[in-house]
Amino acid sequence: MLQELDGKVAVITGGGSGIGASLARACSAEGMQVVVADVNGERAAEVFDSLPAGTAATLTVDVSDADQVQALADFAFDTFGAVHLLCNNAGISPVGRIWDFTDDEWQTLLGVNVRGVANGIRSFVPRMIEQGEGHVVNTGSGASFVATPRLGPYCATKHAIVGLSEALRYELEGTGIGVSVLVPAGVNTNIGDGMVRPSADPELLADDFTVLTTSLDPTSLEMIEPDVVAEVTIVGVKEGWDYIVMGPGQEVGVQRRYDEVLAAHRLAKARFPFLP
After folding, report:
1. In-domain check, residue 190
2. How many domains does the chain have?
3. Which residue among 154, 170, 243, 258 is the active-site one?
4. Is 207's pLDDT higher than 90?
5. Is residue 220 over pLDDT 90?
6. pTM of the model
């Protein structure tokens, strides 16, 4: 556990807005040196400018590009000499029916949401192991546990983050490196700005958003602020939480998934008593 963050170094992808920007400010408030990485260099620079002089750095990075993430790791270690907290936070959330996504749109989504996390792990974790201390936070979503119509591909990527993070946690046992899955829901960010796919049919788009909205539990439409997410995340890192979960509808969604899986298991055993 990184119980003491003062004087440590954090790297945050997707750090130019939303949860990432709030994480950057929260880490800085803890006395950390911060590298703000974002595919939008202007937004990253704005967050960088808001942090105390001499305590931060910024780099324009497309996390789906393994070479750029490796360059980010080299930059961070060269600039500050270490990285103690890696927040694989960059993500996109395009809307649409699963079969409407083109191959290119699938590649883009998987590139940012899944390979972006894998690239961060590959480029940073071996050096963090050499340090003997550190923590990785992989940003999931309420969609990590609950599937929603018109967000199927996004849900698939966020489910993947859970499996990836749990396996990473097992593999890092005894190394001094912790792993948390950040699972926020209903956060007031600009992730919705990228919900329209390049190939989206304008005549179907309104229907996509109508189906998405009406499928949600009304309580899940309540919003929490990204600064709250960052505040809770800092506590989760310090205390070594495996899951950092917050936001409306989470308990109901997780319980429903749990109940459905167990009910299916019991049904199979009832129909086929020879099953273990």
Report:
1. yes
2. 1
3. 154
4. no
5. no
6. 0.92
